[in-house]
Amino acid sequence: MSLKLGVPSKGRLMDKTFAWFADRGVALRRTGSDREYAGAVDGVDGVDLVLLSAGEIPRELAAGRIHMGVTGTDMVRERIADWQDHVRELAPMGFGHADLVIAVPDFWVDVDGLDDLDAVAAAFRREHGFRLRIATKYHRLVREFLREAGVADYQLVDSQGATEGTVKNLTAEAIADITSTGETLRANHLRILSDGLVHQSQATLFRGRRDNWSDEMRSSYTALMAALGQDG
Ligand SMILES: Nc1ncnc2c1ncn2[C@@H]1O[C@H](COP(=O)(O)OP(=O)(O)OP(=O)(O)O)[C@@H](O)[C@H]1O
Ligand SMILES: O=P(O)(O)OC[C@H]1O[C@H](OP(=O)(O)OP(=O)(O)O)[C@H](O)[C@@H]1O
């Protein structure tokens, strides 16, 4: 088997990933048509390119179906329980920066931080008979963060997109989502809690920890890392 390198197949991370490798003398290229998810790595023998959704790369790495991969640190922490047992960070790549944050409606003028959110959540439950709803797709990261912060009286509601709209649509009272420019939050009249930064993400090169590598794969890995100017 050859060493499989998984990279985002589209979206905001794809072009910058190709550029990051090219800057280091390793050409990744798509083969076939624009719509065909096939690719090749030039310059290093024995490495196959696998084009995948950024969100699926953590699972494929943990399962050992790809051996190296590029995705956001938020994706790895969210999608793999005890991620450090399954994958290792090789190199932060300096793009794809996004902050996962907790945000509340602008008009909640008395709510500045997590302690205030905790108080509002307890009062909300007493008043409404159900728990304050926080919409997110980052369930694992948000639960861990709020548990450590001592916020208890809330429920997560799943939102896989347009999460900032859930407050206006009355399906949630607060949200946890990623932001980069902050424009989507502002446009939806939401404000980040002063201590509401859950995780700072950026695109990162990872390797899986599974020990299913042949000698050929190990030597391709060493050659690729040397070409990239990274220590294995
Ligand atoms: N506005 C943004 N600015 C910068 N990076 C972002 C932004 N939104 C998301 N990201 C980062 O991009 C990565 C996810 O990318 P994207 O949303 O394109 O993947 P995805 O959800 O797997 O998409 P798809 O399944 O549609 O291919 C995450 O690591 C995330 O932190
Ligand atoms: O701070 P900003 O620069 O405004 O960017 C933040 C937005 O970008 C992402 O959405 P995406 O475009 O991936 O769409 P989604 O709602 O489908 O997740 C994220 O979920 C925010 O909604």
UniProtKB/TrEMBL annotation:
CDD domains: PBP2_HisGL3. Transmembrane segments: none annotated. Pathway: Amino-acid biosynthesis; L-histidine biosynthesis; L-histidine from 5-phospho-alpha-D-ribose 1-diphosphate: step 1/9. It comes from the Bacteria. It catalyses: 1-(5-phospho-beta-D-ribosyl)-ATP + diphosphate = 5-phospho-alpha-D-ribose 1-diphosphate + ATP. Residues 54-212 form the ATP phosphoribosyltransferase catalytic domain. Keywords: Amino-acid biosynthesis, Glycosyltransferase, Histidine biosynthesis, Transferase. GO terms for molecular function: ATP phosphoribosyltransferase activity. Its EC number is 2.4.2.17. It is an enzyme of class 2 (transferase). One of its GO terms (biological process) is L-histidine biosynthetic process. GO terms for cellular component: cytoplasm. InterPro entries: ATP_PRibTrfase_cat, ATP_PRibTrfase_HisG. Catalyzes the condensation of ATP and 5-phosphoribose 1-diphosphate to form N'-(5'-phosphoribosyl)-ATP (PR-ATP). Has a crucial role in the pathway because the rate of histidine biosynthesis seems to be controlled primarily by regulation of HisG enzymatic activity. This is ATP phosphoribosyltransferase. It comes from Actibacterium mucosum KCTC 23349.
